[in-house]
Amino acid sequence: MPLLSATRPLNASHDAAFLDLDGVVYIGSRAIPAAPEAIEKARSAGTRVVFVTNNAARTPAAIAERLRALDVSADPEAVVTSAEAAARLVASRVPAGSPVLVVGDTGLRRAMHECGLRPVSLASEQPTAVVQGYSPHLGYDLMAEGGLAVSRGALFVVSNNDATTPMDRGIVPANGSVARVIASATGQEPIVAGKPMRPLHDECVQRTGAQAPLVVGDRLDTDIEGANSHGTASMLVLSGVTTPAALLAAPPGHRPNYLAWDVGGINLPHPQIRVGSAGAAHCGGWTATPHEGQLRLTGDGDRLDGLRALCGAAWSAPPEAGTDLAAHDALAYLGW
Question: Which domain holds residue 141?
Answer without folding.
Answer: 83-192
